Amino acid sequence: MDSQGPHPVIIDHVGARAGMDRYDEALGECLAGLGFRPAILSNFRAVHADLSSQVLFRNRNGSPIARYVATLAGMASALAWCKRHRVRMAILHLFKGSLAEYLCIRCSAWLGIRLVVIVHEVSPTGEKGPLPFRVAALRSRVHALVVHNRQTLDELVAVRGSEKDIRVVPHIGYPASATSKAIALPHSLVPESALPTLLFFGQVKRSKGLDILLKAMAHLVSPCRLVVAGRFRDVNAAGFRHLVHSTGTADRVIVLDRFIADRERDALMGMAQAVVLPYTRGYQSGVMIAAMSHGKVVIASDLDSHREVISHGDNGLLFRSGDSNALAGLLNAYLEGTYDAGRIGHMAQRTMAEQNGCKVVGRLFSSVLAP
């Protein structure tokens, strides 16, 4: 192992803004357990004793230009930190394939840093295809590119023209030790009696199919309520509320249109009986991984990326993507007790331990990091 400095360094400009802090710390714990000396360069402080961290990405508020400049500055600071500490191996999260991410890839090569790039999206939702800087980033020569499932692999191969240097490593699960102490929820969120709660969690985008879920809610027979928790991104909040009223579900839907911090997220997960993912497009859902790690029943559309993890009726439930009637039928069956929720939740946690656990992911990542 390289003795010059931290090995490897994880560079993540999203971090705590979208739950990636939990991902980074879980991965860092796995690598530390295998004898590596990981460090995290992001926008949060690691809580695990074996992990060093530096807050280099700041000022995420303000105009899009100000946020972009802050990301560029953070990348520059991360590279300077790596040079100062003689880092020879780094892991970079690639989200949108932005100019900042592309420049980080190029500069890492100039600095002699062997770079592993975790590709979260090939063509981000809402776009027709990869944009110029993303194509350049995805085609760059790096030590390795890591994807979390076959769907992402196939799309990445279409861009690069070959599977060379691409490795499939499952999205790391979130063990109980990685969860934060949940906070007490406001009284308005605590369900009356035993009323079942469905949770839609994460940034609200058109591709996540919240409109499909609302239409399905209008046809439910059994009483329940839906909590929508996450900041609205490319969905108009006023239009969403109009849809809520037009479907007659206003008395059953609670909306938290804001960023949800870790402790509140854990409290919401603990409160919910099921987490619904009605996505019409997507790669690997961190919400799905978190929910299954919590032992929750995940009710998801049958996207390829979901079917790679969920076996219907075993460790989760699947319905035909884009079909609100199919979702309504499945929700009714679930709420009426057709499925053994306790067993499904148990199998979900078992899946995370056996397929997405630290031993599996750590072993695979260790091989990726090898010279």
Descriptive report:
With 371 residues, the protein is an alpha/beta fold. The chain folds into two domains: 9-172 and 356-369, Glycogen Phosphorylase B (Rossmann fold); 177-353, Rossmann fold (3-Layer(aba) Sandwich), CATH 3.40.50. Helix content is 39%, strand content 15%. It has 13 helices and 13 strands. It has helices at residues 20-33, 64-84, 99-110, 132-138, 150-160, 210-217, 237-246, 262-271, 286-293, 304-307, 324-335, 341-355, 358-369, and strands at 9-11, 39-42, 52-55, 89-94, 114-119, 144-147, 166-168, 197-201, 225-229, 253-256, 274-277, 297-301, 317-319. Strand 5 (114-119), helix 4 and strand 6 form a beta-alpha-beta unit. It starts with 8 loop residues before the first strand and ends with a helix. The model has no long low-confidence stretch (mean pLDDT 89).
